[in-house]
Design a protein that fits this description.
By secondary structure, the protein is α+β, with helices and mostly antiparallel strands. 31% of the residues lie in helices and 12% in strands. Strands 1-2 form a two-stranded antiparallel ribbon. The protein has a two-stranded antiparallel ribbon with strand order 3-4. The radius of gyration is 15 Å and the shape is elongated.
Amino acid sequence: MTHSAENGLLTGDDYLESLRDGREVYIDGEKVEDVTSHPAFRNSARSMARLYDALHEPGKADILLGVDRSGSLWRCRVAAHGPCANLLRPCGIEGLEAE
């Protein structure tokens, strides 16, 4: 798995690839071969991938990333649905609904 050379964080593609690690996921008794493409999970996976991609966009990274007292980079955890979705709109992160 590769990480961005700039900040060491996953890209959206890196995140999706990380989900293809051989984990066992079942839904309604059926084994899911790939959560990134299965209808029950793919939209959530894509939404998260878009947030990872936003970490690499200058205008959005400034809002979604922070540095703690020790100088370590950290990623803000955000809610993308419901009333909290309004918090993401000022930085251009919207449209996370199902595709």
